[in-house]
Amino acid sequence: MSARSAQKSASAQPLARVTVATPDAAHDLLAQLMAGEMALGSTDLPSAAAYYSSAMALSNDPRVAERAAKLAIAVHDDAAAQRAIDRWQALGASVAGLAEARAELALDRGDTDEAHRQLELLIGSGDKDAWRQFGRVLLGARDQAQAARLLESLATPQRLPADAQAWLAMSEMGDKFGLHAYAMGLAEAAAQRFGSAETYAWLAQMKAKDGDQQGARALLQKAIAKAPQNIQLRLAYAGMLSQSGDYAAASRLLEHGPQNADTYALRAALAAQSKDTKALAALYQQLQQAPPDVRQHSAYLLGQLAEMQHLDAEALGWYGQVDDDDPHAFDADLRSAVLMQAQGKGTEAHQLLGQLQLDYLDQPEQLRQAYQVDAELYLREQQYPQAEAAFGRALLVAPDDPGLLYDRGLAYAEAGQVDLAVQDFQRLLKIKPGDVDASNALGFTLADANRDLPEAERLIQVARTAKPNDPSIADSWGWLQYRLGHLDQAAEVLRGAWLANKDADVGVHLGEVLWKQGHRQDAQRIFEEVRKIDPHSNSLQDTLRRLHP
Fold first, then answer.
1. Interval 47-97: pLDDT, tens
2. Which region among 67-71, 98-102, 356-360, 380-384 has the lowest average model confidence (pLDDT)?
């Protein structure tokens, strides 16, 4: 043999001559299963059912036949479902599994008698998951009335197992199907038979839905006695107590036992409702000592509690720790902007609000709020053109929003753009005829500009009738009397408003009236008080310039 021949023989391996037959996709089990799963991933149930039907014919795995049957039933292909069920039975399906599938198919066909027979086989199979499967069949039925009738006839106290969860599940399903008497009866029977915290709690929920608050509270007390460490039970009972106005009892209940973010949140809400500042301060201290995960979930609440105690720097720190995926993330950023501005960081506040406006461009409600807060901060800074522009952007998002129109009207009035202010207030009154705040604002604006005083008088009188003891409305009325030349009446009304509410603008108005009456020392004393309240009051500066030309 030549060297060339030997080399050729050595290179020819035995398997090189073997031909492997590759099945086409229609006869490739793996290909059909993969295609079926991909169709399921795309929620294309008809295609998934077709692929699994093909796979079932190529497989001896009962799980493939089971999946084929379930998918065929889901797409209402009764013939394919029957073939798949038969194949599954031939491959060794369980009694419970077959009964479940056949009951589903019978319900899909509207055959109540067959569904009843199969469901009886299912719950009589002794399978540990039989009642869970029973519930799944009925919840998936297209005809809920038909499912309700089967539930009521089969899930009776005589048939249900010695498992409280099964009783509760059937009672809850009955309630879902509108079988209130059935659901209540089963709930009462479960509570009597098992006497567990869960059965008492579910019956309490049913009683509360019926309006029996006293019965519900008594049952929740029993539930908590059985499971005193159960946070959800304590929250439910505390919520019920607070709804009835017994905030103190609700707070006492939550003070003891395990705590989480939800208990702290409800405790804070209860203390705020009761205006219990000591409880809020104590709660702030406790929450700061809570485990790290509770503090993290409560960062927004901690910020609120810090703000309530005027600990603005601490509040800002807590708001900064609110996660981006926290439901309070947007609110935390809004409050951060407000606090930044209060700390003299107006530029940073407006930058943050500008970023929020970009981040929430596709969420109108949040976008409106971001514009509105931006405008309000500009208004506080007496940057009126910027405030008016921001209110205008907010109104593009929420046209004719009463609150925005009112606030922009105030901004225009503060900037001396009386015509534009009047337009906004008049537009607001067309949207909300007789609105007290709008009537007062328009009336004051007209009076302050010393124009159309009869209309101003009519508008402010509307507001006075609705809110006779409101200091801001009294201020408007007093200022109107001043414009009308009724100095004594103006002084009397404004003095009452000033004593009721030491507002800087009210003080400026009272001081000017006193000055015009010749009581200049009294006026100077009022002006000094105003300067202490608001050292940067534009109104005071303008008034003093007019009185001391």
1. 999 999 999 999 999 999 999 999 999 999 999 999 999 999 999 999 999
2. 380-384
CA distance 382 to 380: 5
Domains annotated on the chain, with CATH: 434-549 (1.25.40.10)
Say which amino acid occupies 417: Q
Of the candidates 468, 464, 442, 466, the one whose C-alpha atom is nearest the C-alpha of residue 455 is 442
Please check whether residue 194 is in contact with residue 160, taking contact to mean a CB–CB distance below 8 angstroms: no
Q: Do 507 and 523 contact (CB within 8 A), yes or no?
A: no
> What does the DSSP 8-state code read for residue 24?
P
pLDDT at residue 7 tops 50: no
Given this model, what pLDDT does residue 180 score?
Answer: 94
Which residue type, as a one-letter code, is found at position 206?
M
Amino acid letter for position 116 = H
Residue 246 falls in which region: left (phi positive, over 0), alpha (psi -120 to 50) or beta: beta
| Alpha-carbon span 234 to 543, nearest angstrom | 59
CA atoms within 13 A on the CB side of 261: 12
Q: Is it the case that residue 491 has pLDDT exceeding 90? A: yes
Beta-carbon neighbour count of residue 385 at 10 Å? 11
Question: Is residue 468 packed enough to be buried (19+ CB in 10 Å), middle (13-18) or exposed (0-12)?
Answer: exposed
CA distance 269 to 239: 11
The CA–CA distances, whole Å, from 31 to 22, 27, 52, 57 equal: 12, 8, 10, 13
Banded model confidence at residue 8, pLDDT cuts 50, 70, 90: very low
**Region at 438 (left for phi over 0; alpha for psi -120 to 50; beta for the rest):** alpha
Q: What is the pTM of this model?
A: 0.72
DSSP label of 25:
G
3-state SS class at 219: helix
Residue 267: both structure tokens together:
């405790």
By C-alpha distance, which of 407, 416, 396, 394 is closest to 437? Answer: 407
> Do residues 93 and 82 make contact, with C-beta atoms less than 8 angstroms apart?
no
| Number of neighbours of residue 281 by Cβ within 10 angstroms | 15
Give ∠ CA 239-242-246 in degrees, rounded to 5: 140
> What single-letter amino acid sits at 324?
D
Q: How far apart are CA 369 and CA 518, in angstroms?
A: 47
Calpha distance 423→438 (Å, rounded): 11
- Both structure tokens of 258: 């395990």
Distance in angstroms (rounded) separating the CA atoms of residues 241 and 267: 12
119, containing H or E segment:
helix 112-123
Of all residues in the chain, what percent carry a pLDDT higher than 70? 95
Gap between the Cα atoms of 90 and 87, Å rounded: 5
CA dihedral 77, 82, 87, 88 (to 10 degrees): 90
